[in-house]
Task: inverse folding
């Protein structure tokens, strides 16, 4: 897959407001926040979209979600609530082709999404 801006963030080639990091996962604030809290959780090793994940990525996908929930608990909004979103391809609204989980919180979310 081609390199994206997110791999540049992983390599510290461009700046980002990083809020969480472990061996496999990096989380940083979205440049264009859609809620008071808007953080992106990404695997350091890129997958372009969720479609590219295989059974071998199951543990990594679990770690992404667990890191998201742990952050929500740590920051104190887990009980109040939050939303996680993975956009895939054009109709999903994906713009950066490096798999990421959006974590949105700090306001009431609406359903269905637009
Ligand atoms: P998506 O539409 O699901 O592919 O979301 C991509 C998100 O990435 C979008 O909400 C804006 C954010 N984004 C794009 N470029 C940058 C960047 O250079 N830095 C940061 N922090 N976020 C970015």
Result:
């Amino acid at each position: 897959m081609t390199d994206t801006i997110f791999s540049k963030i992983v390599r510290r080639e461009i700046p980002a407001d990083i809020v969480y990091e472990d061996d496999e996962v990096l989380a940083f604030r979205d440049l264009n926040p859609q809620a008071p809290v808007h953080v992106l959780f990404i695997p350091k090793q890129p997958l372009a979209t969720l479609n590219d994940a295989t059974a071998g990525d199951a543990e990594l996908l679990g770690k992404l979600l667990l890191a998201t929930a742990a952050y929500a608990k740590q920051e104190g909004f887990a009980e109040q609530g939050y939303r996680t979103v993975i956009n895939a391809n054009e109709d999903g609204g994906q713009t950066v082709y490096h798999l990421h989980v959006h974590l949105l919180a700090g306001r009431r979310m609406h359903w269905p999404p637009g």
Strands lie at 18-21, 25-29, 37-43, 83-85, 101-105. The mean pLDDT is 97.
